[in-house]
Amino acid sequence: MKADCRLYLVTPPALEPAAFAIQLAAALDAGDVACVQLRLKDVDDDTVRRAIDVLRPVAQSREVAFILNDHPRLARETGCDGVHVGQTDTPYRETRKIMGADAIVGVTCHDSRHLAMVAGEDGADYVAFGAFFPTGTKETEHRATPDLLTWWQEMMEIPCVAIGGITPDNCGDLVRAGADFLAVVSSVWHHPEGPGAAVRAFNKAIAEA
C-alpha cells in the first residue's frame, strides 16, 4: 500500500475570514497539508469572495492548493486552484469546462462504487468517499467502509479522499486501507490545543499507520 497519505483541510461552515486566516496559517505551518477547501454554507457569493481574498493567499503562499466547494465560476474568477463538487452541485463535465484542463476538480461519491467509476472515467482529479465515522459537521446519509478505499486503489490510479468524522485516533485504518487524502474539519479547528497541534497529531498518526 502507498504510505503517502496527506491531509486535506476543510474549513468550518461559518467563519470570520481575518480571524480564521490566523488559524489557517497556524495549521499550515505545523506540518504537511496537501490542500485547503473553503466550504461555507448558506452565504452569498460576495461573502465567499471576501473569504477567498483573505484565505487563498495564506494557502497558496505556502504551496498548498486552495479549493472552493461547489462554485466553479467563482473559483475560476478568484484564482482558486480548483473546485469540489457534490452529486447535487454543478455536474462534473460542466465544471471541467468552466475550470479548464489545469484546475483540480474533485467529486463527492459518498459510498458508491458506481459514482466513483463514473467520476474517474470522466476525468476527475480525485474522488471523495464518506462518511467513514459519525460527524457533527453535516448530516450523513451515507456510510462508507475502509474496504471501499482498498477496492478503489486496486482499480484506479486517481487519488481518493476519505471524509467524515476522521480524527488522529481513528484515521489509521483509513490510511492502511489506501486513502490518499484525509479530509478533516472539526477535529482540526476544534482541537483543544489548536489547529497546529491537530495537524501535528494527524501527521504523526499517518506516519505511524
Automatic annotation (TrEMBL):
Binds 1 Mg(2+) ion per subunit. 4-amino-2-methyl-5-(diphosphooxymethyl)pyrimidine binds at residues 37-41, 69, 108, 138. Signal peptide: none annotated. Keywords: Magnesium, Metal-binding, Thiamine biosynthesis, Transferase. GO terms for molecular function: magnesium ion binding; thiamine-phosphate diphosphorylase activity. The keyword Ligase does not apply. Its EC number is 2.5.1.3. One of its GO terms (biological process) is thiamine biosynthetic process. One of its GO terms (cellular component) is cytoplasm. Pathway: Cofactor biosynthesis; thiamine diphosphate biosynthesis; thiamine phosphate from 4-amino-2-methyl-5-diphosphomethylpyrimidine and 4-methyl-5-(2-phosphoethyl)-thiazole: step 1/1. This is Thiamine-phosphate synthase.
